[in-house]
Amino acid sequence: MQFPQKIPGFRWLLMVWAVYTAVWISREGALWQVVTMGTMTTMLLVGFGWERWLGGKPVQHGVGVLVTAVSGVILGAGSSLLSLLFMTIKTGLHAHGPEFSQAEIAWVWNSLPLWTAVGLLVGLGLGLIWAGMKETGD
Question: Could you read off the pLDDT of 74-100 as tens digits, one per residue?
């Protein structure tokens, strides 16, 4: 397996994230908006890590599958944790009381194990598919 030197669409995602951040920071807090912010930020961090440390490097199939599985865990857990961080930042910037209810904060926190498990399974599955495609030459 060889990781791509540049991830297709990565710069596009970065531009969308920058615009979304500028709009997000000025609006009132909504759960779906902060979760989107946390997920996009985590995707960018994982993508940056792939390009920085793995871009263009060949790895054994097992290592590649492990990297995609760990990336899935990071994406799942990071989305939840960064969403909580952005909830805190948003509440601090808008000094008129809490932006998010206690139920919304609890929902994001309680979703952490589920999102982590889903990220692991998706990352593992995609890694296995990728390894199988490279092995057969597809």
Answer: 999 999 999 999 999 888 877 777 889
pLDDT by residue (tens digit) across 100-127? 999 999 999 999 999 999 999 999 999 9
Closest CA to 44 of 18, 77, 66: 18
What angle, 0 to 180 degrees and rounded to 10, lies between the N-to-C axes of helices 102-136 and 61-93?
160
Task: Tell me how far CA of residue 132 lies from CA of 50, 52, 56, 89, in angstroms.
Answer: 20, 25, 19, 43
**Tokens 């960064």 belong to which residue?**
82
